[in-house]
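re: the backbone from monday

yeah here it is again, tokenized this time
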């Protein structure tokens, strides 16, 4: 499906440790650009979600967007403008 860089794993674990109730990481594409991701932490799975566990992290992705993540690597890269972003990079 997809892989996660060590930098992204560290950032995700840090975010999950801060949240006391949220345990799922939702990955969505930003609609303005297919390589940028919107990442949110959630406490439940929706009916149209696929749950994928990678390296002990529980991701949820809408089934209609699964194909966008195939053969990609999720990376965490600080943006030039100071925003921190996750990106999907082809491997």
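seq for it, each position gets an aa:
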């Amino acid at each position: 499906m997809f892989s996660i860089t060590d930098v992204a794993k560290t950032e995700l674990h840090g975010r999950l440790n801060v949240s006391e109730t949220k345990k799922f990481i939702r990955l969505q594409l930003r609609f303005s650009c297919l390589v940028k991701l919107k990442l949110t932490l959630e406490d439940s799975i929706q009916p149209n979600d696929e749950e994928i566990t990678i390296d002990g992290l529980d991701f949820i992705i809408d089934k209609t967007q699964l194909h966008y993540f195939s053969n990609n690597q999720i990376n965490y890269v600080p943006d030039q403008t100071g925003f921190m972003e996750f990106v999907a990079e082809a491997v």
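Helices lie at 6-18, 66-69. Residues 46 and 62 are 8 Å apart (CA to CA).
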